[in-house]
C-alpha cells in the first residue's frame, strides 16, 4: 500500500529536489522526517528507491506555506536529507533551493503574480532570514526561459534575483561567533563567520594543498579530509553550534588567491564532500569575510572600493558574483547581499511513499 503526496520537482540554482506544500506533510517532525527519507530513498549511497540524486546538492527538500505575518508572502523550510544516513537536517538554510520558492508559490496558487515582474518577500524558517525574490511573470505566469546564466547549470534561463535583507549571525547568533576575526585550531589560522551560513575559512596552503585542485582530487584526499574534520569539530562548539559531529554546519572553505579574474578562489566542503561550485549563502559569507580587514580571507583578496562591492567568488566550476552593500559608517559592515540565480519547474505530480511511513500527523 502506498500513499501519493502532491509534489513539484524543481531546480533551484545549482541544487534540485522535491517541493511540497507544508499542509501536505505530517506536522509531527519525526513522522515528516521519516517520510522525507522515504521520498528521497535515504539512507542509500545511490538513493535508488527514491528521488534523491546521490549527492548532497540533489538530496534537498523544500516545504512552503503562505506567510504567517504581515509583509511576508511565503515561508520556506529547507531540509538537507543525508544520502548515506537516516538523517534530516533543518539547521542550515539553502540559498539555491530558495530560488525555486517564488516559482513554487506562484505555480501552486499560494501567491499571485503582480505584473510582468513579481517580487515576493520570503521568510526562510530555518534561520529566520528574510529575502526579496524577483521573478519574471509575463501574463501572470512564471517564465522559465531567458538569457541568465549561472555557473554549474548548463544553458540559460530566466533570472531569479535574490536580495538578502539581514543575514549576519543567522545560525550562530552573530557574524563573528567566536568574537574574533582569527582563531587557531590544530595550528591553522581560521576565520569563523556566519553571514547566512556558518563557514570556517582557511588558507588552502595551510592545509598542504593549493586550493586550485579539482573537486574529485580533493574528495579523494583522505588525509586532507581528516585535517578539515578535526578543525570543524573544534570550530563548531566555538561558533555556538554545540557538537557538530552529526550536523552539516559549519561548512569548511579553503581559500587561495584568485586566478580567473575574480576576487577570491574557493573550495568548499559541505562539510565532508567538496562542493562542485559554492553554496549561495556560503558565497555570501566568504565574500563578507573577504572584505573584512584582518580576516584569513582578506589576505587573499583585493576588494573593490565603494559601498556597493561586487565580489566574484571563484569555485571549481566557475564563479559566483555577490553584490554587497556596505554600511557607509563602517566599511567592514555588510548591510545587504544580492545575487542572481535561476530556477526551473521540472515535474509536477505525486510522489509515492509506503503507507506505513506516510501516516499524517
Ligand atoms: O550556502 C550547499 C548549495 C548549498 C547551500 C551547501 C546553499 C547556501 O549549493 O546557501 O545554497 O552548502 O550545503 O545548495
Number of domains in the coordinates?
A: 2
CATH class of the largest domain: Alpha Beta
SSE topology string:
EEHEEEHHEEEEEEHHEEHEEE
Radius of gyration: 20 Å
Q: What's the end-to-end separation, in Å? A: 18 Å
- As for the CATH topology of the largest domain, it is Diaminopimelate Epimerase, Chain A, domain 1
| Largest sheet descriptor | 8 strands, mixed, barrel
Low-pLDDT runs of 5+ residues are none
- Structural class assignment: alpha+beta
Shape: globular
Relevant CATH superfamily of the largest domain:
Diaminopimelate Epimerase, Chain A, domain 1
Which molecules are bound besides the chains?
A: (1E)-4-oxobut-1-ene-1,2,4-tricarboxylic acid
Average pLDDT level: 96
In DSSP terms (H or I, runs of 4 or more residues), the helix count works out at: 6
Q: Reading side by side through the largest sheet, how are the strands ordered?
A: 1-2-3-4-6-7-8-16
At CATH level 2, the architecture of the largest domain is Roll
